[in-house]
Amino acid sequence: MRPNRLREIWARGGAVANGWLAIPNSFSAETMAHQGWDSLTIDLQHGVVDYQAMVTMLQAISTTDTVPVVRVPWLEPGILMKTLDAGAYGVICPMVNTRADAEKLVAYTHYAPRGTRSFGPVRALLYGGADYPAKANDTIVTFAMIETAQALDNLDDILATPGLDAIYIGPSDLSLALGCNPTFDDLDPKAADAVEHILARAKAHGLVAGIHNGTPEAAARRIAMGFQFVTISSDARLIAAGSQQVLATLRASHAPKDAGGY
């Protein structure tokens, strides 16, 4: 089976640079994949990507060594299983609030006897290889999102769930849940403390911790803290930021001259 480079990077003690795909287009996904991201996450929860667009984006990513990850819309077995059948090598599940939620997530993403995933890896066989059924349980990476006050209350129970590989912090939702301003990087003190607490408990349980960031500077700081999966911005935000920079430079170079005078 094709190895999962996420696991290889983590085994070396490294951190994964993850890109985020919100644009439902295979060419933009292919372009992002060729820029050298360790992984790219297709976002099915928010934005405008549907399942069929996701499949074409996975196909585009597979033209490179970039690892394909998908954030599913919810903790629902059908979409989790179809996402894996399409060839995702990692899944991020939002709003995991209890040990029971985490146990369901692990069950839905693993074949028996470790789980209840139904068998039908139609495209996953093409991407992963003929021995995919035998090795998928140990290759796929399963992330539970920790982003609510309830999840914080149940944190150690969630992290102790057998078969869970990693957690992913949604700083905006976590901030909202704690009565703070929703943002990625410059968190209010209460939210920042919660992030540090989640990271420390994840490391204590031997799980990888990931988090969303708005800038590479913030991502670098969080790697220094101990995060091993850092998302930076998104394809849509990068297009907007690049366009703004180009236009600002152009317009500054052609700004009207001050005529002076009295």
Beta-strand content bin:
15-25%
Mean pLDDT: 96
**Looking at this structure, what is the CATH superfamily?**
Phosphoenolpyruvate-binding domains
With strands numbered from the N-terminus, the spatial order across the biggest sheet is: 1-2-3-4-5-6-7-8
How many beta-strand segments?
Answer: 8
Largest sheet: 8 strands, parallel, barrel
CATH class: Alpha Beta
Percent of residues in helices comes to 40-55%
Distance between the terminal alpha carbons, to the nearest Å? Answer: 77 Å
The CATH architecture assignment turns out to be Alpha-Beta Barrel
Stated plainly, the CATH topology is called TIM Barrel
> Which class best fits the helix and strand makeup?
alpha/beta
Shape: globular
Description:
This protein has 13 helices and eight strands. It is globular, with a radius of gyration of 20 Å. The protein has an eight-stranded parallel beta barrel with strand order 1-2-3-4-5-6-7-8, surrounded by seven helices. Strand 1 (about 15-20), helix 2 and strand 2 form a beta-alpha-beta unit. The chain has helices spanning about 5-10, 25-35, 50-60, 75-85, 100-110, 125-130, 130-140, 150-155, 155-160, 170-175, 190-205, 215-225, 235-255, and strands at about 15-20, 40-45, 65-70, 90-95, 140-145, 165-170, 210-215, 230. Helix 2 packs parallel to helix 3 (about 50-60). The protein has a single domain (about 5-250), classed as TIM Barrel (Alpha-Beta Barrel), CATH 3.20.20. By secondary structure, the chain is α/β, with parallel strands linked by helices. The longest helix is centred in the last third of the chain and has 19 residues, at about 235-255. The model has no long low-confidence stretch (mean pLDDT about 95).
